[in-house]
Design a protein that fits this description.
Length: 71
């Protein structure tokens, strides 16, 4: 069987959680645009990875990026 191609933008946006749990994690939106007027606390909160909510989205991401790595 040939390898499945990975959707590159999906692989850049999502990661699997550390510690063997394998939860699908994503970054928060709004990180790169209009950061001058936001407080330091708000900007720091953008750095956190949060788990993906919803089985449908998780299934779609795993189909697009079958070889995601833990990070």
């Amino acid at each position: 069987m040939p390898k499945i191609k990975t959707h590159k933008s999906t692989s850049k946006r999502f990661r699997l959680s550390k510690g063997g749990k394998g939860k699908l994690m994503r970054t928060k939106q709004g990180k790169s645009h209009f950061r001058r007027r936001k407080s330091k606390r708000t900007k720091r909160l953008f750095d956190e990875m949060i788990p993906v909510q919803g089985k449908g989205i998780e299934r779609r991401v795993r189909r697009l990026a079958p070889y995601l790595k833990e990070k």
